[in-house]
Amino acid sequence: MTQDKNMSLLEVQHLQIEYPSRHGVMVAVKDLSFSITAGEIVGIVGESGAGKSTIGNAIIDLLSPPGVIAQGEVYLNGNKISGLSREQMRQVRGSKIGFIFQDPMTSLNSLFTIEQQMVETVLANMDVSREQAYQRSLDMLAAVGIPEPELRIKQYPHQFSGGMRQRVVIAIALICEPELIIADEPTTALDVSIQDQILELIKKLCKERQVGCMLVTHDMGVVASVTDKVAVMYRGQLVEMGSTAQVLGAPNHEYTKSLISAVPRSDLKLVRFPLVNYIETAEEIHQLDIANHWLGQSQDQKQYQGPLLKVENVNLRFTTKDSIFPSRREYVQASNNVSFEIHEGETFGLVGESGSGKSTIARAIAGLYTPQSGNITFEGVELTELKSEQARRPLRRQMQMVFQNPYTSMNPRMKVADIIAEPIRFHRLAEKHQVDQIVSDLLDHVGLGRKAGLKYPHEFSGGQRQRISIARALATRPRLLICDEPTSALDVSVQAQILNLLKDLQDELNLTMLFISHDLPVIRQMCDRIGVMKHGHLVEVGNSEQIFTAPQHEYSKNLISLMPSFAAFSKQNLQIAK
Amino acid sequence: MTTNIAASPSRWQKIKQSDFIYYFSRDKVAMLSFAVFLTCLIVAFTAPWIAPHDPYALESIDIMDSELPPVMLSEDGDDRFFLGTDNQGRDILSTIMYGMRVSLTIGILAVGLQLFLGIVIGLCAGYFGGKIDSFLMRIADVQLSFSTMMVAIIVSAIFQGAMGSEMYSQYAILMLVLIIGIAEWPQYARTIRASVLAEKKKEYVEASLVMGLKAPRIMFRHILPNCLSPILVISTVQIANAIMSEAALSFLGLGMPVTQPSLGSLISIGFEYIFSGSWWITVFPGIVLVSLILVINLLGDWLRDFFNPKVYQD
After folding, report:
1. ipTM value of the model?
2. pTM for the whole structure
3. Would you call B206 and A459 a contact, using CB atoms and an 8 Å cutoff?
């Protein structure tokens, strides 16, 4: 091993990572060079498939087969660590580099106590006695902010919440005093409030202990709030690297510009997202004359004065433990006296952390769950009193849903055209000979082109599938569109495209939307009015502007204050809504 | 989008380039098994045309030819009978070909019946859940708590007693298909129920509910096609099991009659002569049966690995 004192903590030079397969060699990372100095946090951002996680795995030599480092070197403190033997690499991994994984639910072994897992790590990598190792573990748990470490260290991972587990993972990563931490999407699986705490913790520990950190993330908000430098990856290439303020505030590369303009901001409301066609273009080829087209001529017209949808005192609970004796049954109250109204043509947002019951409400409205009590009224018709499926069917047509996961929300064994045509044929919404024409018009209208119908869903990307999903929802000419986290599985720029599409469709077709998301900035971009949910309660309902600028309830105040700040982001090319 | 517009390959090219063919052509065991299985199938179903003799044609059987040893192993062999003859003077090679035809027919038809019952019951249990699920699965559990062979033996003995041997042997194939088919359906029902439960949680099922589609349509049009890979895998194993059950029943004298022998009854017929030196009557059908079952099981294993790459990675 050669030593070079002039090098920074981590030095990556001309790194190239390849995945050979029978279809040819896939280059995951192309000629990448960057460096991290001690105490510095470098964010690696990029969309899925950009190769950002691969870099972290390559540095610690844990590439999943058949991935190989084709060329280039990695130096840690001047020592070359690429191409070391397994045993040498193992020592580097344990003591010099710590790794924080994405999902705290699976990165701890659930059969061992925290003590066993921490002490094992220390003993494997440091020359200390068992007592010293135990003491070290206690100190480390205290340092990551776990209360009562003497008690908690004896517990098993399942006794910790998600955020607490991630703290334990960080403690284990830091316990052997590594020089570098690689954090691969450390907060993606966590709620906003916990995300903020974990990021603060990583930041604090890196500064205190002068540890370098490579933070891999797709979330521009995370980058803005903790990193010193940012490296932007696009299809395996480093397109831009610089200080966080410079990259976010005055991006140079076209891709970075597009990426930053596509980030939903919490501080401004945009008319549309500009410059979003860098990754995947999707244009409508034949302009559709909505007013004279089948799509614009629904037989379901407004007949009722008053709110389109009214939810009154809805209670819904799920049985978590069943028993013959009513007193011994246990429930979780997913919706507790929830009431709100949605008016014709508006977008109502439901926001809340995971488990707050927002999806449950949506499913109750769509008729997938039956509430225990309360009323759901659509256009003056009481939905909860409709007993037969027959009576409900005409109303089902008027409400459609767009689901969260574009990979499971379509039947993989049906062609796209059949998926979209199914509701039209089933509800007999058009003459037989018209159906094919309508389906191809719909596909074109959502930006996929007329030929897309001949393919199967797996031939499309996540964003394109979400377009198919939207086209399917539109195929019944609904009046209410329920969007359940429609973009949370998508990359930023694709998310921006889908949000644009939804906005356009709403204007053209006078759709009413119920938009559900955990992502506050997205909600701000989309919604006219917002309801904030917490543990099954609707704590606050108000205009979007009011909720974001002057929240009333403690919980909403807290949520809003925890949002990452977007003030540093470039405002170039943005159309700001009044 | 550029890749989508590029000339789409023809159906045949797509099949040729698929992972299925790629991994298949790289696995020698799978290729060999498939070759053997295909040969068995072709030989069995073209037996009337390619078999050197017709063992059912009584006029061509000569009792003087009985118990001749195979040509290559003994001087006493007759060139007409490559693998020798049995106690009635029938050519072993031809009886194996015809017997394999009977065995495979029963195996495939019985699996067809299991498949039908299993799909309907498993799909209903998994989709509707609750009381229907408990009821149907308890029936399956009760049936599984008897050994398959025991059920089959009892039922076939009852039928044979009730109908008389004459009539029973006339409808033997049909009876065996029914017995084996009914005895093994819970295997299918359980597998299908498990994959229906997994599929039912996926959002495309919710999407069709929101559309207002009716239950049978969701079950058969949306869920069932997505459960096909486990069905395919257990089908291969079940065909092997059904052939074995049939062979076992026939060996015990409860299956195919001597006049219309399957591989199992051939082994059973020859078993009486094994100590009198005429081992070939029982050994050759035995070898054919074992290799047939083996290749089907190997194919099933390969299919399982292909559809579930987590189990096996090279």
Report:
1. 0.77
2. 0.81
3. no
